[in-house]
Write a structure and sequence with these properties.
The structure is a single chain. The protein is mainly α. It has helices spanning about 5-20, 35-45, 55-65, 70-75. About 65% of the residues lie in helices and about 0% in strands. Helix 1 (about 5-20) packs across helix 2 (about 35-45) and helix 1 (about 5-20) packs across helix 3. The two termini are about 15 Å apart.
């Protein structure tokens, strides 16, 4: 599995958890998470994403990387 697939698999878990636990912090529901994952797949190579969200930070923590653009880029090998 490619690194982006590893990242997105973990991000899907963390985003679903975050939206379920903190629904007032998100402008979408759990049913919309797959669409968000599709958009983040396109955003990662372009560095057009936020690193400070709960789900993003949890994803990075679980993958052992810092939640920074450089660390994510290095992990994804872009």
């Amino acid at each position: 599995m490619a690194r982006i697939d590893d990242f997105l698999a973990e991000y899907t878990i963390q985003l679903t958890r975050a939206v379920t636990r903190h629904p007032t912090l998100y402008s979408y529901s759990v049913s919309q998470v797959p669409g968000v994952i599709t958009r983040i797949r396109e955003a990662l190579p372009a560095n057009k994403y936020m690193t400070n969200g709960r789900a993003f930070r949890a994803t990075c923590r679980n993958l052992g990387i810092k939640p920074t653009y450089k660390a994510v880029r290095d992990f994804l090998q872009y």
